[in-house]
Amino acid sequence: MSDQIQEYKACWKQAVDAAEKELIQLYSQYLQSDQELLKENLQKYNQQDKRNEVQNESCPQDNINNDEEEDQQDQMGHQSNIATSTTKEDFVVNQEIKRELIREVPFKDEILYIYRITYQNGDVYEGELLNDLKDGLGTYYYENGEKYDGLFSEDLIHGYGKYFFIGGHKYEGDWYQGEKFGMGILDFSTGDRYIGGFYKDAFDGEGTFEYKNGDVFKGQWKKGKKNGPGEMRYKDKRVVIGEWIDDELQPF
């Protein structure tokens, strides 16, 4: 299993690298977002004579983007509740009605046994088992049309994996005991995209939110909202650098 996990980690790294290259191509002038540089740039902006003009022009647009982002976060929260419903307790309640060995796959010096489990509510799991629990590589098909493809551990989504939501959203990245946890990419069906850290299913840590209209926010997140130093770059070349608290840009 260690070889498989390493291969999946390599695939995940390639996906992250490709996403980062895409952003670099679209925004070649994008600044590095470590905290020291952000504070230095903020001081420079505070010294400019046209600071008030930039602030007045940017605040209305920022409020519009905040409204759009809140809508996306509401969507994410709803989808996350579906994604994280796969717990040990749920699997106990969701009784299986059929289990069968569907194929044997040679893998280096071992044989991987792939099972199919059909559950009473219509869900289907295809993948590896360990001690009668989902463990290793597998795919879980939800009765409502959603799908998870990736790693499991002790009956929980755990490790690297992809989750396809019924609304068209897709998450690819790290999971910890059924929750988005670590680095990930969340693509919304609307065309928006988030790349960065997650903690308990919410944006957390350093991350980049790319809006479908061309605006980009890069900075710190906590509990799904902008919290800490950040930089908003608008498609019309305007730049706002500052501190955010719960999605609100703080006055200079």
From TrEMBL:
Pfam families the record matches: MORN
Taxonomic lineage of the native organism: Eukaryota, Sar, Alveolata, Ciliophora, Intramacronucleata
Keyword flag Repeat: yes
The protein, known as: MORN repeat protein
This protein's UniProt keywords: Repeat
Listed InterPro entries: MORN (IPR003409)
Keyword Cell membrane: no
Organism of provenance: Paramecium octaurelia
Residue segments, region Disordered: 48-85
Compositionally biased intervals (Polar residues): 55-64, 74-85
